[in-house]
Structure formats: structure tokens, C-alpha cells
Design a protein that fits this description.
This protein is of the alpha/beta class and 266 residues long. The protein contains 12 helices and 8 strands. Strands 3-2-1-4-5-6-7-8 form an 8-stranded mixed beta sheet, with helices on both faces. Helix 7 (162-170) packs across helix 12 and helix 8 crosses helix 9 (194-215). The radius of gyration is 21 Å and the shape is elongated. The two termini are 36 Å apart.
């Protein structure tokens, strides 16, 4: 029996498939997708095994990762529930769906865990939150951490905070890319070649984020360290503030958080 099956190989599912193949070996990963050709292409890329459908994936592995849209989960689990008996472990990445809700759609006693990953997992630079239904054995949490080890940082979190986490880390890359593009556009406006402007902006964001993680310094303190009195950096920061930069980011995270919470109630 394989260690991990992934049902749904879209952007997020595909990112975790790539990470799992690096973590535990492609020979331990099986995948299925509604469009079979998509799963077959990913299998050819990573070396894992594509199977015809979700039921075949469940039957082939112990840890079953669901990478389908939240509104599709109930029907899929109703279909797969009989195959989930016999020691299978369910791991959902559907935003808004609690472990309690998920447990109600499978056989009693099936261990249920949730993860919230982001797309940088595909290159080992991701951030994933992990939680589990009350009473879930420690071995299952450890196993999921091991399967996702090569995806980046995996951190356990109280389930009540998962929607907030998703609004920051799951949705966050989509907030960062327009900022990065805008920085590069500014560089082009100032005369930099496009390719270099993008590279300079991307490396700057990468380095700034790494400095926060590695030093533990407050982002505000690190910002202050770059801002000389009367200098060009504080002029740029003042321009961001005049245009409501921080308020816009706060609004974006809050909007995503509210949407995640609504998904769990629909």
C-alpha cells in the first residue's frame, strides 16, 4: 500500500504532490483527478502513479489528501466513504470545512485532519497549517508532517484559527504578486530593464521575509532600520501610507477571512 494519495491535482493539489514526491519518494504517491490527462501529466513529471479515479486512489494508499473545491467535498466523500474504512486517514485542504463537518460525511472512527497550504509548497518554500479532530492519534499528525516535509514549513494550529491562517498564508501569495509586479513596474519606470526589475523586486521580497524569520525582529523595527531621517526610503514609505497601503492589506486579509468562514457555513 502506498503512503499517500492525492485526489485533485489543481494548483494546490499539484504543489503538494510535488512536495510529497520529494519527501517520501514518488513510488509512495498515487494521484487522481477528474480530468485524467492532468493527473497523467503530473505523474509523468514527478514519477508518481496516476490512477483512474478517486476510489482507486483511496484503495491504493493510507493517507488520503483531498484537493478538490469545498463545494465538491460532500458528494465526493459520500462516494468514497465505503473505501475509507480499514485504517484509512482523511486529510482535507478544503477551506472552511471543519473536521467535525468532514467526520459527519465518512464512517465513524475515520481519522480526519485538515491542512491549509499555499502554492510555494511546490518549490519547498511553502507555509502549511495542520490540525486534527479531537482524539486523533499523534502518529497521524507526525505522518502528515513527514509527507509534507519537503513542502516548506508545516505548523500545527488550533482549528478555530484555520480560517484566519488561510486568509494570511493561503491567500497571501496572491497579495504579494501584484505588489512585486508593481515594484518591478516602478523600476521599469525609473529605467531598469524589465527582467532585471522583476528579479531585483523578487529577491528583495525574499530577503526581507527571510530576515524577519531568521532574526525574529518585529517588521516595524526592520523597516525603521532602512529608513534614514529625510532619506529616500522614508519618502517611499510615506507615499505608501498616503495611498492607504497597510489599510488595503488589512482589508484584503479580513475579506478573505470572512469568505473562508462563509464557505464553512454554505
Amino acid at each position: 500500500m502506498k503512503r499517500a494519495a492525492f485526489i485533485g491535482t489543481g494548483s494546490m493539489g499539484g504543489a503538494l504532490v510535488r512536495a510529497a514526491c520529494r519527501s517520501i519518494g514518488a513510488d509512495q504517491v498515487v494521484i487522481a483527478n477528474r480530468t485524467a490527462a492532468k493527473a497523467e501529466a503530473l505523474a509523468a513529471e514527478t514519477g508518481c502513479t496516476a490512477v483512474p479515479d478517486g476510489r482507486a486512489a483511496v484503495e491504493a494508499a493510507r493517507y488520503i489528501f483531498l484537493g478538490v473545491k469545498p463545494h465538491m467535498v460532500k458528494d465526493l466523500l459520500t462516494e468514497l466513504a465505503p473505501a475509507l474504512d480499514g485504517g484509512k486517514v482523511l486529510v482535507s485542504m478544503a477551506a472552511g470545512l471543519t473536521t467535525e463537518t468532514l467526520a459527519g460525511w465518512v464512517s465513524a472512527g475515520t481519522p480526519v485532519l485538515r491542512i491549509m497550504p499555499n502554492t510555494p509548497c511546490s518549490i519547498g518554500k511553502g507555509m502549511t497549517a495542520l490540525c486534527a479532530a479531537p482524539g486523533t492519534a499523534e502518529e497521524h499528525l507526525v505522518a502528515v508532517e513527514e509527507i509534507l516535509r519537503a513542502s516548506g514549513r508545516v505548523e500545527r494550529l488550533e482549528e478555530r484559527l484555520m480560517d484566519a491562517f488561510s486568509a494570511v498564508a493561503g491567500c497571501g501569495p496572491a497579495y504579494v504578486y501584484p505588489f512585486l509586479e508593481a515594484m518591478a513596474d516602478g523600476g521599469v519606470l525609473a529605467g531598469l530593464p524589465r527582467k532585471q526589475a522583476v528579479a531585483f523586486a523578487a529577491q528583495t521580497l525574499l530577503g526581507a521575509a527571510a530576515l524577519v524569520l531568521e532574526t525574529g525582529e518585529h517588521p516595524g523595527a526592520l523597516k525603521d532600520a532602512v529608513c534614514s531621517p529625510g532619506g529616500s526610503t522614508i519618502e517611499g514609505v510615506a507615499a505608501l501610507e498616503r495611498h492607504g497601503f497597510r489599510a488595503a492589506v488589512l482589508d484584503a486579509v479580513e475579506a478573505a477571512w470572512r469568505k473562508n468562514a462563509a464557505l464553512g457555513k454554505s
